[in-house]
Structures are given as structure tokens and as C-alpha cells.
Specification:
The protein is α+β, with helices and mostly antiparallel strands. The chain is built from 12 helices and 5 strands. The chain folds into 2 domains: about 170 residues, no CATH class; about 80 residues, no CATH class. Keywords: Coiled coil.
Amino acid sequence: MAIYDILCQKKDCRKQQEGVCDFNGYLEDYVANLDRDDEAHDVLSALSAIDPSLKVIVGLGLNINKEAIANQIIHYKDSFKLPDGMIRCPYIIYGKSDDEQRAIIVTLGDRAQYIIAKALYFVMSEPDNEYEGTRNEMIAFAANEEHLETLIESTRAFFMEHKKAGSLQRRLDMLMFESYDEMYEEAKRIADEQSEQMGELLAQAEDKALCINQLIVKWFLMKKFSYVQYMMDKNNLNVIHGGNVKRQRQVAKEKADNISFVSFTQLWKIIRQNAWR
């Protein structure tokens, strides 16, 4: 099933208790109900002006496929304990025309949010899940005031001009980062920063279990990004590793292993020890 058809079927929490997203409908309807001070307003308003038929799904819950080879290699066991739908995708803009279905994962922010957007794409495009077969129908991007025009141009190119997802995504990668190494350093920084801030985050959280799950989600996304992005780079395979996929996979695993995290057990131990002072 193609991406538009899949997303159209996602149930909306506003209408049904078993919903898996906060909103699913026409983008212009969603924007009309946004406060103008909302950080998403200007971005989504600009996109809705491109094509009134575009739809948006907000806060879509995603799950990790425990059987996916990449996730087995990453071997972050705590991520397998996450409740269903704990990984939340902020915005997915989707539409169809001329028998083609397309979607853009959109996060709000700068380079760090771009890494998160790409990681969410890697989760959605895992083999053997409900979105399998849609990887060439999706791209990911992070938008702020600085890069809003790029998002608008990319949306037009993807939806209206039917540019290929792979080439468009690579162009966006090169716009945001000079190399995989630079991407990887940003992913490491995000994970390290969360590790440094986790005590404060846990102290401030009213729902400790939810906070722990959210911490695990971000660490998983950074590991996922680091592994899959490295494996997707043909330059790494052909130039650095001489076509040796096993060697490429080993280095990708090492990259993921070097992303810092704190275990589920240790996080609860921190809570019990502080309880909260």
C-alpha cells in the first residue's frame, strides 16, 4: 500500500479513543485552528498555501520493529521495552497527484531537528512494518525561519515536479551538513547533551515513567540514525571499505555503540535514589 493510502487510514485521537495521532486531515484546516504564536504556524501555513489538497498527520505514534536487522545489530534492548506508539512523529505532510503518493516528515528547528527527522524516516522505512515499500515516497526535513524557503521549494519539487526522493534527500543532506562525520558528531552531541541533562529532566517530570521512555526514544533515534545513515552511504561502502559490506556494517555498529545512553534500570535507580530531593 502506498504512503497516502496508509496515512489516510490512521485514526485521529480527537474522534476515536484508539487513535494513533493527534490530528489527521487537511493541512489548511489544521493551520486555521493554530494560534498565530504557535511555532508551527508560519511553517505549516506556508506549506498549505502550496496546495490546498495537502493533508497533515500530527503526532503520529511509531513503533520499533524488533526483528529488523538494523535494530538487532544496534542491540539497544531498552528500546524494545517502549510502549506502542511512544516514538512520536511531529508532522507528516502528505498528498497525491498523477497517481503518485508522497509524504514529508517535518520537524521544527535546526540541524539537530534534521537529524531527528531523518531518524524518524529510518524508523518508518524499516523492513517488515506497515510502511514497508514507501521509502521512495518519503523525505524528511527540519524547518525554521532560516530554512523555510528550502522546505517550500522542496515540497514543490517533491509533490508538484515529482522529483525522486533519494536525490532530493541527498541534496537536503548536503545543504545541512558537509559530510556523514559532521552528521554523526551532531547525533553524538544530542545524545551526550541528553545524558548530561537527564537528572534535571527526571527531577522536573511529573510522570517519571513517561520521561524515561522519552529519554530512551531519543537515544534510540540517535543510534538508529548513526547506523542506518552510515550504511546508506555508497561512498563509505565503495571508497572507504572497498565494497566490503561486512566491514561497513561493523563500522556502522561501532558508530551506534559509541552513542551515549543510560540504561532503563539505571534511570529508575536514579529516581529511587533522589525521590526527589
